[in-house]
Specification:
alpha/beta, homodimer, 2 domains, 37% helix, two-stranded antiparallel sheet
Chain lengths: 273, 273
């Protein structure tokens, strides 16, 4: 059986831990993979823990008990989050992003894995302590971001549909009023998808008046579950009357200016961190 | 400025490389982060490369030239892929997954980040050599899987919608015939989302007759772009007449048996690998 050097072991341990955020990995996995004693692996983990902490790349926690081990919790420095938000603003004001109806074209951003991954880590870091069961989103544009947050928190993703689908079994549908357009819309969720008494967060691409978020709160009530937090990439602060009070955003959208350009700034969240 | 030991540097390098699949990272990033000479970093990278290769966890490639550096290419062993497919079959035959219409309930699987990540690495490994520009999917259930594949290949995700949306600007819509139900359906894609002359792969959750895949081929023609490959999680082999000849799947669905249970086996793809 192969013997591995410390350098090699920390490489493998880093990859396995960081690819499984918020999942407890038993040390036996590592002792068997590297054919090494538990004490040796424990020393390796100290190196990984200290390095990730030094580099503001998240942290490694020890989980005690029979089912114990170590787990990686994602993280990012305040400075890096702010730089990300500033760069995102620059991208969003560039080019011909304003489309008829004074919308801002963001589809390419929401489907860019590099951007979505970074935004996902920032949002997940905020909700790390809530100990939630599900990350909920509404189709379609916010799905990749919500998926990244769910992955970083080590929980299941739940996607609310606009219409019930035959492949999802029995569903619960509710009507809600879109806060900005005042239109009645429907959202629908498979009965099987959420267990009673669950704790959830809602992740989306864009927050206008918060009608969708209000709908999610009511939908979750049908599952006897509650919403503990809301995170969005962009918060439209031009829409002043909000149905929802507390939520976290990365970037603030201040509307389209007289020159036909979008105006954006980083969320003031990063000042408080 | 901090000095880092080799153990610490390989930890940081592993995290940065594996979190940015198929992206070329200039060695300057590492020399500045760790305050170390290029020759030292090169030695560190040799360790990371050899370890990941030894553990069948992907590979590290050197990219020559001024814009050069190193990049991580995801990978997984044939044995691990097969074990994953076998375990997935076990999960899919369990419990009350058969829903009216002889569908199999897979929503929880498609939204489980741990499963989706592993399936994404397996599919991305197959398409690594194609040098594609986009990973395309159709909303909704295949989005997390397609996102993972796009992330692993370091390219943009493209999500085809069922209806045009106001927030996506001008769109191209086509009609296609669903191969199994023979119904006419519509798919729609924003003009801005794909550049002319692009190479794409199509990723989805489930392949029945291949009507959707045929639709994607025709839609891509409108963008003067071509489809180079198709990958799905589950291939329904009960539907014998397929509109598409070549595609890769992880699991084969053989229908519902007399006892009302789904029958599944790992795809024979893993035998050939």
């Amino acid at each position: 059986m192969n013997k591995y050097s410390r350098n090699q072991r920390v490489t493998g341990i880093t990859k396995i831990l960081t690819e499984n955020p918020n999942k407890t990995i038993n040390l036996k996995i590592f002792t068997e993979l590297f054919n090494a004693a538990k004490s040796t692996i424990s020393e390796d983990i100290v190196i990984v823990r200290e390095t990730l902490s030094d580099l503001s790349m998240g942290r490694v926690e020890t989980v005690a008990g029979a089912a114990g081990g170590v787990k990686y919790i994602c993280g990012v420095s305040n400075q890096e989050s702010k730089i990300f938000a500033e760069e995102l603003c620059k991208v969003l004001v560039q080019g011909d992003r304003v489309i008829p109806g004074n919308f801002i074209y963001m589809t390419d951003i929401m489907y860019n894995p590099e951007i979505v991954h970074k935004a996902g880590v920032i949002l997940a870091s905020v909700f790390n302590e809530l100990d939630i069961d599900y990350v909920v989103t509404v189709e379609t544009k916010g799905i990749p971001l919500a998926y990244e947050v769910a992955k970083m928190l080590g929980v299941q993703l739940v996607i609310v549909r606009r219409d019930p689908k035959v492949t999802e079994g029995s569903t619960v549908s509710i009507n809600y009023v879109s806060g900005s357009s005042n239109r009645i819309q429907t959202m629908s969720l498979s009965r099987k998808s959420i267990k009673k008494g669950s704790k959830c967060i809602f992740i989306d691409d864009f927050m206008k008046a918060g009608g969708t978020a209000t709908g999610i709160i009511n939908l979750l009530k049908e599952f006897e579950s509650e919403l503990l937090g809301i995170g969005v990439l962009v918060n439209d602060i031009e829409t002043r009357h909000k149905l929802i009070e507390e939520y976290m955003s990365i970037v603030l959208f201040k509307g389209i200016n007289d020159e036909g350009k979008a105006e954006l700034t980083p969320s003031n969240f990063f000042e408080k961190m």
